Amino acid sequence: MNITTRFIVVCERAFTAAVTNNLNLINIFTQIHAVSFPFTHPQFALVVNFDITEAGSHLLHVRILGPDGNQVAKSELPVNIVAGPPSSDDFGRASNWQVIANYEHFAFGAPGTYTFALTLDDTPLGERALQVVPVAGQRQPGIA
Q1: Domain coordinates of the chain in residue numbers?
Q2: Are strands 31-34 and 123-134 parallel, antiparallel or unpaired?
Q3: DSSP labels for the chain?
């Protein structure tokens, strides 16, 4: 199985158009600002876009690691890859897919870098970092 990851993004909302299946990403971001911790973000989407040569049933694993490197959440999403459009050179041909994972009311326990690590079955797809930053001027415990 050959997989090429095209991109992994975090955004406010993501959806595909009904007729064209075009991907729509709204408000892509890499940083969240929080007044206090734990901070609960109302909603966001994690989107991965990749090319793959093997049709069939797969499982997308998402591990979210906190600033200390420990896992704070995980999810598994079934992905059913169907063969791409017929072609005379179909052998080994990759088709493009995207998966949207929606998160609601996700709690970030502390400021720092949160890492989304993605694998399809046992094949790594990549990682995306999200910075959770305290609002300037806010005092943090233990900081004088």
Answers
A1: 3-134
A2: parallel
A3: --EEEEEEEEEEEEEE-TTT--EEEEEE-SEEEESSSSEEEEEEEEEEEEEES--EEEEEEEEEE-TTS-EEEEEEEEEEEPP-S--TT-TT--EEEEEEEEEEEEEE-SSEEEEEEEEETTEEEEEEEEEEEEPTTPPPTT--
Residue with tokens 């059913």: 80
Residue 119 β-bridge partners? 61, 124
pLDDT for position 143: 47
Cβ neighbours, 10 Å, residue 48:
24
- Taking the CA atoms of residue 19, residue 104, residue 134 and residue 71 in that order, the dihedral angle to the nearest 10 degrees is -110
The model's pTM is 0.85
pLDDT at 95 (0 to 100): 87
Weakest mean pLDDT among 3-7, 45-49, 61-65, 82-86: 82-86
pLDDT of residue 88: 40
- Fold of domain 3-134: Immunoglobulin-like (2.60.40)
Higher pLDDT, 19 or 28: 28
